[in-house]
Amino acid sequence: MTAEPLPFRDPRLSVEERVADLLGRLTPAERLAMLHQFAPAVERLGLPPFRTGQEALHGVAWMGPATVFPQAVGLGATWNDDLVRRVGEAVGREVRAMRAADPRVGLNVWSPTVNLLRHPLWGRNEEGYAEDPRLTAALATAYTRGLRGDRPGRWRTAPVLKHWLAHNHERDRDTASTSVRPRVLHEYELPAFRGPVRAGAVAGVMPAYNLVNGRPNHLSPLIATELRTWTGLPLVVCSDAYAPGNIAGSQGYLPSHEAGLAAALTAGVDSFTDHGEDSAPTVARLTAALEKGLITQDRIDAAAARLLGMRVRLGAFDPGPDPFDAEAAFDTEEHRELASTAAEQAVVLLKNDGLLPLRPGTRVAVVGPLADEVKLDWYSGALLRRTSPLVGLLAHPGVASAAFAEGADRVRLRTGRGWVTVPEAGAGAAARDGAAGASLDPALVASRTDLPPLAVGPLAGATTFTLTDWGDGVVTLRAPDGRYLSVADDGLVRASADRPGGWVVQETFTLEPHGEGHLLRHRGTGNHVSVAAEGLKVAGTGDVFTVETVERGEDAVRAVARSADVVLVVAGNDPHINGRETEDRSTLALPPRQDALWRTAHAANERTVLALVSSYPYAVPEADAALPALLWTAHGGQASGTALARVLCGDVSPAGRLPQTWYADDAELPDLLDYDLIGSRATYLYHDGAPLYPFGHGLSYTAFAYGDLAVRRAEGGELTAAVTVTNAGGSAGDEVVQLYASAVAPSVPRPHRWLIAHRRIHLAPGASERVTFAVDAAEALGFWDVAHSRWAVEPGAYTLGAGASSRDIRVTAGLTVAGEPLAPRPVVRAGLAAADYDESTGTELVDTTRESGDAVAAGAATVGELLFRRCDFGTGPARVRLRAARAEPGSATVELRVPGTGWHATLRVESTGDRYAYTTVTAESPDAPEGVHDLRLTLTGPVRVDRLDFR
To answer: Which residues contact 291 (CB under 8 A, 6 or more apart)?
Structure first.
């Protein structure tokens, strides 16, 4: 007889039954050990080790070569849910195939990133899909469905969304707190996460490094009150790397690591990513927290159960072959074609005065720092193949010729001791391929030391370097063999890197004017380059270098531009430089040297096209005014060059659409840490100015007509809209049909319009399609009513519009929602939570307690103002009570005024000695107004206000 499998290995049982059985077989210490990222094996039960966290944002990352798809922001530009689902499926299959060859490859995939691209200077802009929550949710749902697969109860991979919550800055990212008011939270931040979670496509969520309203995201009460209420699945919450230690470390939020980890576990964190593969510190801290009574065994068991449930759904404990093994695939023809299609669909035509598509037989000059590059980012896999724009155009049969000029200066460096030279590598220096250094943590991959360091010598032996200026004083230097100057752990400078990269980039320098020359500062260490006995080395003090220009980049560009029919300037960013994880951008402007390149090319040849290949938007109003054509694409992965060439030559009609607003100037942006897009009038939702290119913008080689928009709201709560779209041009193409809503006369500030649905369709010339959308009416039309802390649809008139962008609405239809007007704030009956304001200046949102609640704080340097609209004072309250705290010595005041009535009351808050020690201050309010009025609060002096009550 065949022995019955242990219950936790029996796929006939439910996941819950299997988890309960396995949990019961583990000792308390074994259960606790499951809570680290690297869970150990339990040999007596035959449990293998398990790791949470496999990066796979746009292809399998950090594990060597894999299919590289466009960056996430590029996938966002496709506006194509089905395509993004297929990309997710391909990535999931490659995860499975790579795991079969290397068990270090994990099945718990930390992707996608659903943080909204509300601010284009965010360093990690490349990781998100869009500035709009509904578009982001739709694409994240598609990607996670592809990653997870369609088998009931069995997952291809287990996707984890990043980063909960309101995380759009790298500056002080682990210590800065962002104020997120209730309307921004419920209307903007939460929907991006809620869509994919509610769709059942998500295994878990990762909290962000930052604090929100004064509280670390790893202690967010919203994990319990919001996130885990959206689905019946036991979501796993995985911490971000090293974040658990920040709670008592850099954040200083709790007094000890035991308390910090206990609070995170209590808030809902299940898996602790800290100290790399060494689980001992985390296990020790959690054990100490258990012994001190800071957590209970039940908390540990609940977290372990969620993690074990994920492993059960991944098939980790099933006998026999895994059903996903048969579909595992790596670098297949299907995946290569999909990478090409995704790159093509991501290209956005920003402007075209008729120069594009290129006519057959065109002679093209391809210039710029990205003309012959395929750039990778921190979350890319190694390239299996690459086609740059230059290579793509050279291979295209419609291009007669493609001349190339990088546009970078070629220079020699001289010191007082001689000219800088790159010595020849010895026989022992091994070549490295794309798989070299594959690591679970690429930050741990060291720079090469097997090559000789740079030396100095006579002019005859001087090396000519390519000096590329990336802006903000950042330059790279590349040797003739293509290798970049880099600094290894021994401090020596070598021509050793294939490309800039790493957690701390070792290939960037700054030329600092010094006397008649320059000091060369290595940005990775902050030290200057000097000449030492063993070669060039970074040290505390540096030698003075003279930079001799052998060839000016602009001269080379000018020469090839004059002899070409069309010039293609390929500008943009290197994703490891000037805008990346840990580093926000300082400006929307193109780097000055790149700006000079398109001007040089255009002066030599007016038929100049600017192609921006970048992780983020640029402000290029002068290029838009001067040049006949502009395009943008994110870094498109392995097929980026072929895709761009096919679009330029008309094989593919461009149909990418901008996933975020392109502003014309830095002055139009709010502060990076200002998350109140309502108050700051940010994103396409609220921006009052004229953007350079609006959200949803993108041109085509054909033309589309819209007509006959019909809208209906069904009794069951569904809103349907149908519009006829016709290809009125002469070539086939895709159109992205965008449906927006707007409120005609709202009682509170609403967006100018907001996206409620979209679809990418393909039409032959002359063909028409009736495009029908069906959405939840309450979600599509509603807003967060702070007066009653609920989601509400305000009665009244709405306009629905369909068109080609948020600023290009082609047809509209009206819709009227019946019902009683929204009631005023019931302040006498329910009181007034300070955080539920309508408008605010000079304040920030803070934590009421370390566990829950939001309060409003004003500092010592500014006077805070809060406005609460339409407060119902009934017959006039006799007294008002204020709940507030003040940690500082002395006192603060909170003044209440009802504009237009002359009534006011002043309450003085004496020091309570602690920011969490609240006191109640009462004031009589004779002659208080009756009925409905606005209420204004003025906060003077450091004070935290929790709420007001009127009696």
So the answer is: none
